[in-house]
Design brief:
2 domains, Nucleoside Triphosphate Pyrophosphohydrolase, 249 residues, 5 helices, Arc Repressor Mutant, subunit A, seven-stranded mixed β-sheet, elongated
Length: 249
């Protein structure tokens, strides 16, 4: 019977750090924006990046994400729709050493201008098209693309689109969110029919909007449902091949 010398056994483990990074989307000036910072410290000093940083001892991942968001941008994430995207751990993703990052997706309605802090020199809401064409620090472009695909997909089968709307809102306000994020126009009548028939997606307040121009419209608030039933597939309104995924195989 052989005996394993555990003191000399190589089990493949290495010292590694854990960080969090946030893909935060909002709709401003009729366009989808993502929050980016200009890094104030090496590595990638002066480069654009997603907000984030190291997880502290005794801190869970959600706490770290909210803290880093507040410290680097001044944005309070407690009122945002927030979920984990996935973990990224390519060996060379961080020149400082082996680092695993847990990426978060956050959605919020017309969020305020960010205020840079800690190791962020500046912070801005950047149009998604501009961000996708930029060189981002670390592997943040890959994370951004996956976050964008997740956000677009979530609008098909969850009620996450309402997280972009300030209450109360009209059906036209909600349709605008879908159009901005998906990138194509939707038929108003079909959209209204699908949304109002979805179980507990939106709830009428019984009040009407008072626009300066045009007819008053019914106002709604978010319902209690988290999943959208029936779902609202993009393919029902447009050829999906004309609007491909940003993630390549």
């Amino acid at each position: 019977m052989s005996v394993v010398n555990r003191a000399s056994k190589h089990d493949g483990t290495v010292s590694a750090a854990v960080t969090v990074d946030l893909v935060i989307f909002t709709v401003r000036d009729a366009s989808l924006r993502v929050l980016l910072i200009e890094r104030g410290k090496p590595p990638f000093e002066g480069g654009l990046a997603l907000p984030g940083g190291y997880v502290r001892v005794g801190e869970d991942l959600d706490q770290a994400a909210l803290r880093e968001l507040a410290e680097e941008t001044g944005v309070d994430g407690r009122g945002l729709y927030l979920e984990q995207l996935r973990t990224f751990g390519a060996p060379e993703r961080d020149p400082r050493g082996r680092t695993f990052t847990v990426a978060y997706l956050a959605l919020g309605p017309d969020l305020p201008a960010p205020v840079a802090g800690t190791d962020a020199a500046t912070a801005h809401w950047v149009p998604v098209e501009t961000a996708l064409a930029s060189e981002l620090a670390f592997d943040h472009l890959t994370i951004l693309k996956e976050g964008l695909d997740r956000a677009r997909s979530k609008l098909e089968y969850t009620t996450a689109a309402a997280a972009f709307c300030r209450e109360p809102f009209t059906i036209a306000d909600l349709r605008h969110i879908y159009e901005v994020i998906w990138g194509f126009p939707l038929d108003p009548s079909n959209f209204r029919r699908k949304v109002t028939k979805a179980a507990d997606f939106v709830v009428p307040t019984g009040e009407l909007s008072t626009p300066e121009i045009g007819r008053p419209a019914a106002l709604y608030r978010r319902g209690a449902a988290a999943l959208l039933f029936p779902p609202l597939p993009r393919s029902g309104d447009v050829d999906r091949d004309a609007y491909p995924s940003t993630v390549t195989a």
